[in-house]
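hiii, so i know i said id send this last week but things got crazy w the move. better late than never?? heres the sequnce for the chain we talked about at the cafe, plus the structure i predicted for it. fair warning i was half asleep when i ran it
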Amino acid sequence: MDGRGERGGRRGRPAASRGRGAVKAAARSSSLGRGRSAGGGPGTAAATLRGARRDGSAARRGPPARRGSVVRNLPAGPAAGGEEAPAAPRSRAAAAGAPTARRRAAVPEGAVVPPVAAASSSGGPRLREVLSRLSLGRQDVSEASGLVNQVVSQLIQAIRSQEGSFGSIERLGAGSYYEHVKISEPNEFDIMLVMPVSRLQLDECDDTGAYYYLTFKRNPKEKHLFKFLDEDGKLSAFKMLQALRDIIKREVKNIKNAEVTVKRRKAGSPAITLQIKNPPAEISVDIILTLEVQQSWPPSTQDGLKIEQWLGRKVRGEFRNKSLYLVAKQNKKEKVLRGNTWRLSFSHIEKAMLNNHGSSKTCCESDGPKCCRKGCLKLLKYLLEQLKMKYTKQLEKFCSYHVKTAFFHSCVMWPNDTDWHLGDLDHCFQKYLGYFLDCLQKSELPHFFIPRYNLLSLEDKASSDFLSRQINYQLNNRFPIFQERY
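okay and structure toks below
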């Protein structure tokens, strides 16, 4: 969920390798033609890309590639030992060895699509094999989710029984588990405790359009929340979160059928994190206080959620008519941190988009065509997760929300289900990864719902460059990190 972006992400336990499949030869390079177009943002087509056909059958016929097309070779990043990784081949001979194309897909201007290096007879893993290892075991999911539901249900009952403040909360599952893109293990859950509030005045507290001060309008119904106002009459996120934390800390002592602890508060985090012992592992549950306001989305969101070509104009209208969500999140840009800021949250919309992700309504249904959108998202989530384990300090600024945001932009750039054909997993992953690398290179990743909010600050350019180098190294060496264990 988008709350993760603010928490800096959590380090989950690594996935254990579940098998060693023999690896067959696959495509290593593709030709990429780049051109300029009038449009400057996501969704403008400016080049054509060739991808290897996995089944080995004859390629579809299409117009010949332009002679003037340029193969963009991405710079290699440093290896773990400090050595420079070999660059992708630049010679015409190497380009000539590229397999015939299965499908020609438009690549928007500015997107970097690297050479296909997903599998090789020299030992690189097939992406489909990697993806199969990331699948959650049914028994593990059943046990973990059952335990979480039991604990959370008891906590919610106790929270509601308190007089006044939190009696109206409702539970909403959010994040990767409920979006069906959780990888490796069912060991992290996000639970939003949603509290309806009738009318609020929203005042931007910085230039991102994401953070707000909240005040009650005249004659509010929620007079029981007045005790959470600060001296300026603003609704204090810190006070509300602290009151909720106190209730939860008292109640976990009454949970008899599980060993539950409340982790120490992390400064600026919108979550109250529970640790549930589930031998031989632990389950982390983030409880996120969320205000649900029945009013129009603020002006900063007007030019976001550009899904008309992907999911349709009608769906966009339906999403924008949904309630506005705000989570108790400290804005670190404030000169004086007072804990009275709230951040817009679109977790409910993100879950809806991921669970109904096709341009056709039957995409990935039992009797419908299958796509590889979620497979690509899982692979990049896993790549970032593994790199963060290896380079924890250098990559602490990054989290899965960066990957998810790049995924939504990619779905807009390539809106059709045929752009994400299940048999083209390698090729589609290259497109998606190429866009993410381009964002890192520019230090520019616009929030999907708030376009002027850049999730990749220029102040963190060194971190973006480091991650870009590491991804390029993995790409040019056929993702050795997918075979490593931590």
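btw The chain has eleven helices and twelve strands. thought thatd interest u
miss u guys!!
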